[in-house]
């Protein structure tokens, strides 16, 4: 059993769930690669976007830790990585205060983007903050009513890719949308792996994820199709003469299918924790392959 001291750095580090931070970094990397290809890359807003995205992901992880504990979702039957509040590593009220403090800090960082993108960034930042809290908290927690996958697709795909590119190019084009869709699909699989693993405990605690709503077989093939469709989206780049941006993501299918086959062979139990970790790695692999293809191509 892992020993973690209360309120220690290790407790906060584990609560931040660093292996999931690829979900925040990948869309920013992809958007910057597209901006570089289109000769409009600007490192200052790109860096701010990366910091904002990473901090927003940590805020979301802290909020999930707190609200899942308050709703009773983190029971002893849960198979996933241990949660800081449920384990007593961090007191609930301290987690809440830190979450709100980091959210305010992230919004202040986001305000600097007004200089590059105008007032639309204020509205975007406020909406991101609202969804980050509403994901697990509030009177209608989105993750508890089957909206988790949609939120991830929008806020870890379309929105970060689109606005990171917009802040550098001051436009939003079809290539931006394609990149956002493809990135969102591979990042969704981090959540799918998590929900696939916890489907039995989620059912008991009435957390209605899409896998609880539609079943194990749906979750299994949802995971597979997300990765395949993401790669198919990249084939659009043949039409822009960006051959490598279409070719390199094809290699992602190897790690994706290997991970999927392992997930379907395990099906249940704590061994599925490794699928979550591999899915986070795979998202970064996809992002890097697509990005290299756009930069070189």
How large is the share of residues in beta strands? under 5%
Gross morphology: globular
Please summarize the sheet with the most strands: none
* CATH fold field value: Farnesyl Diphosphate Synthase
Low-confidence stretches: none
Number of domains: 1
Number of helices: 14
| Highest-level CATH class | Mainly Alpha
Which whole number gives the mean pLDDT? 91
* Structural class by sheet pairing and helices: mainly alpha
Taken in chain order, the helices and strands follow as: HHHHHHHHHHHHHH
Ends distance: 49 Å
CATH architecture: Orthogonal Bundle
Radius of gyration: 19 Å
Estimate percent helicity: over 70%
Count of strand segments? 0
Q: Topology, pairings included?
A:
Layout: H1 9-15, H2 22-37, H3 43-70, H4 92-111, H5 114-117, H6 120-134, H7 148-169, H8 174-197, H9 199-204, H10 210-214, H11 216-234, H12 243-247, H13 252-266, H14 273-296
Helix pairs in contact: 2-3, 2-7, 2-8, 2-14, 3-4, 3-6, 3-7, 4-6, 7-8, 8-11, 8-14, 11-13, 13-14
Quickly list its features:
single chain; 297 residues; mainly alpha; Farnesyl Diphosphate Synthase; 71% helix
Describe this structure in words.
- With 297 residues, this protein is mainly alpha-helical.
- The protein has one domain (9-296): Orthogonal Bundle (Farnesyl Diphosphate Synthase), CATH 1.10.600.
- 71% of the residues lie in helices and 0% in strands.
- Helix 7 (148-169) packs antiparallel against helix 8, helix 11 runs antiparallel to helix 13 and helix 13 (252-266) packs antiparallel against helix 14 (273-296).
- The longest helix has 28 residues, at 43-70.
- The mean pLDDT is 91.
């Amino acid at each position: 059993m892992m020993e973690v001291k209360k309120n220690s750095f290790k407790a906060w580090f584990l609560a931040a769930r660093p292996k999931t931070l690829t979900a925040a970094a990948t869309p920013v990397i992809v958007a910057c690669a597209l901006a570089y290809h289109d000769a409009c890359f600007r490192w200052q807003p790109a860096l701010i976007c990366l910091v904002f995205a990473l901090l927003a992901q940590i805020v979301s992880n802290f909020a999930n830790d707190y609200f899942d504990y308050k709703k009773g979702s983190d029971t002893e039957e849960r198979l996933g990585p241990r949660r800081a509040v449920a384990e007593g590593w961090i007191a609930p009220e301290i987690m809440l205060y830190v979450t709100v403090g980091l959210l305010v800090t992230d919004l202040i960082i986001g305000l600097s983007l007004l200089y590059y993108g105008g007032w639309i960034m204020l509205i975007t930042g406020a909406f991101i903050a609202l969804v980050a809290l509403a994901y697990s908290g509030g009177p209608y927690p989105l993750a508890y009513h089957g909206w988790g996958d949609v939120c991830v697709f929008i806020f870890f795909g379309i929105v970060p890719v689109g606005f990171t590119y917009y802040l550098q190019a001051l436009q939003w084009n079809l290539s931006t949308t394609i990149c956002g869709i493809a990135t969102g699909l591979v990042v969704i699989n981090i959540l799918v792996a998590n929900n696939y693993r916890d489907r039995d405990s989620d059912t008991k605690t009435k957390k209605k994820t899409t896998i609880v709503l539609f079943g194990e077989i749906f979750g299994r093939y949802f995971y597979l199709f997300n990765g395949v469709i993401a790669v198919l989206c990249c084939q659009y780049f043949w039409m822009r003469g960006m051959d490598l941006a279409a070719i390199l993501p094809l290699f992602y299918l190897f790690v994706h299918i290997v991970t999927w086959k392992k997930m379907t062979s395990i099906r249940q139990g704590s061994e599925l924790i490794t699928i979550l970790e591999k899915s986070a790695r795979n998202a970064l692999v996809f992002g890097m392959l697509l990005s290299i293809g756009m930069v070189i191509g």
